[in-house]
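To fix ideas, we now present one chain and its tokenised fold:
***
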Amino acid sequence: MTEQVAIRDAFGCALKQLGASDPRVVVLEADVGNSTKSILFGEAFPDRYFNVGIAELNMTAMACGFAYSGLIPFVNTFASFLTTRASDPIGSMAAYDQLNVKFCGAYCGLSDSYDGASHHSLSDMAFVRSLPGITLLSVCDAPETEWAVFAATKQNGPVYLRLSRAPAPILYRKPAGWQIGKGIVLREGSDIALIATGYPVHQALDAARLLQDRGYSARVIDMHTIKPLDKDLILDSVQKCGCLLTVEEHSISGGLGSAVCEAVCEGTPVPVARMGICEFSQSGAYEQLLEHSRLDAASIAARAEQVIRHNTNS
């Protein structure tokens, strides 16, 4: 059985490691530290850990003050609340003044499954993409989570890190030359490029194997950085594959698919299909919600086959 580690656990462990190596790091949370696992940092460094209560706007304003004083604040709570209730100071303070604040949106997408639509975060990437100067990261497994946390610290200016709650298979067994702004080709192919981000990267890989059984060759890309987007890799996939399919656990509008379409339209237009979420979500088991939203491997493979056939016949 493939080893699985919850991304929230990897996040908490990475924060703790970071705290030991950099005394400038402080962590703020909105009374959900036990859920996001930032509490691991708090237990190790209580004098640098601030539970502000359920006050996301105030938490972000406090973080901006810490950044002004030369510290590196990590702000964390559920993504659904961070990018809505704290949207004002994220935009008017952190982004506008290019402050060195790291926003960590936990339980992204559908991963807070049983809490239902109020806790599902399906518009956070669209909000962050719309703000100038914010780096946007979206990770798919535990090692990538650790790399992203440390890379965010070195990145000057605001960063938004999108984190799932769910246990995820370990994809990266050794350093992959990971860097902000550079997507990773996980599998080569020539008929279509599956460009995924976050937890759906695993479903995209499974879909590529299903497509191989049907005689199709699919390239799979982990687009862990949505902003700045790796346009060179996208255009390289256009040349090698001729059509693209994006997969994201986010609204079909404003996220990865929209970013890829913009890049392709500005470069070499080819067919681009997008898979994401088109409705308010429900409450239920995580894998069932993914299947309901057609973000499972079988649905991705079926949509990819449609795109390949359309591209071949056009």
